[in-house]
Amino acid sequence: MLPDSHIGGAGESGRVVGLGTIAREWGRIGITGFGGPPAHILLLRRLCVERRRWLTPEEFEDGIAATNLLPGPASTQLAVFTAWRLRGLPGALVGGACFIGPGLVLILALSVLFLAGDPPLWVLGAAAGAGAAVPAVAVQAATSLVPASFGRMGRARSARARWTGYALAGAAAAVLTGPWLVLVLIAAGLTEIAVRGRGRGRGPSNGPAPDGRTGGMGGRAAGLPLATGPLALGALGGLGAVAWVAFKVGALSYGGGFVIIPLMRDDAVHRYHWMTDGQFLNAVALGQVTPGPVVHTVAVVGYAAAGIAGGLLAAAVAFAPSFLFVILGGRHFDRLRADRRVQDFLTGAGPAVVGAIAGSALPLAAALGYGWQWGVLAAALLWLVLARRGVVLTLLAAGAAGVLAVAAGLPPA
């Protein structure tokens, strides 16, 4: 539970945590947090629970479950949430900014290098090599989500048939519908609400999920009202279009960091022509190998569209919902977690997210332009999916392979 008496105040020890301490500790995690959400959660737990004992283990686990119900990057929301628990609004702003800032600065600096008009040859090779491994990262991300999502749906044959249908719809949407993928994810969640609601009859909608679990894939019904958000921004072009793409990433992404790929790719490559397919692969790779949230990828897209100003705007719009959801809704997280309709939405949106992430691998692979890149992709698939190795090491190794390839005279040399 998240007791109101403890929100925005002192830690478990009763001592008020200074903003300077929050800035230093959350900034350190922002610098060293390679490896995505699992690494971020581990580092935050070590800091807040084990080392400083600002929060109890139960409070921290409740925070994970609660932030998993919100749209956008879950590990960022957990960083904002834990800082908010310690110092309220000032803590949330300082902690979140210091968690996001280091990776944002680094990825914008790398964007300047990798998206330059005439980058060095070794940069071209590293980008082509790392980009070749990105479809494998998508496959690995999708397969890692299958067990929890499939188990959440239930053992009934009809439930498993719905899971398969949602997953196929998500995969088809990622390949065919581009920026409107989010509507398919929402439709899957709403369909599951309707199906399970009929099964329960007209009983009360609130209460724990039938299986007693909370949290989930990160497909979050709290973002439903935002689905009818500023669609007009996308028609404006320029910074308005950058803001719309970033808004979808931050407020309408269900399923965690990697679902941003199918949400962004069609807009960035085909609709607005900010990047080539190869450059988009580079953007995804940069988001994976830099510290901090994977959602930093949106800053690369913003940079390609409008330079540093576009990158900063994209990051600000993408991360703003994480702050707002925690600051404005934190006191209501327990009620949200207990709402059956929220749980049903998660259950339906989850498999659609899995399918969307897996489906995004197809157009990503189709974008590979050189024969040697397919060898890198095959090796990455074996390393990630079969050997179950880490993403960061895989992308770094793929980048090194690309450098060697161009040094040997292979294209794009």
UniProtKB/TrEMBL annotation:
The keyword NAD does not apply. It is found in: Cell membrane. It is a multi-pass membrane protein. Keywords: Cell membrane, Membrane, Transmembrane, Transmembrane helix. Its main location: membrane. InterPro entries: Chr_Tranpt_l_chain, CHR_Transporter, Chromate_transpt. The keyword Transmembrane helix applies. The chain crosses the membrane at residues 92-116, 122-146, 166-190, 241-263, 284-306, 312-333, 345-364, 370-386, 391-410. Belongs to the chromate ion transporter (CHR) (TC 2.A.51) family. This is Chromate efflux transporter. The gene is chrA.
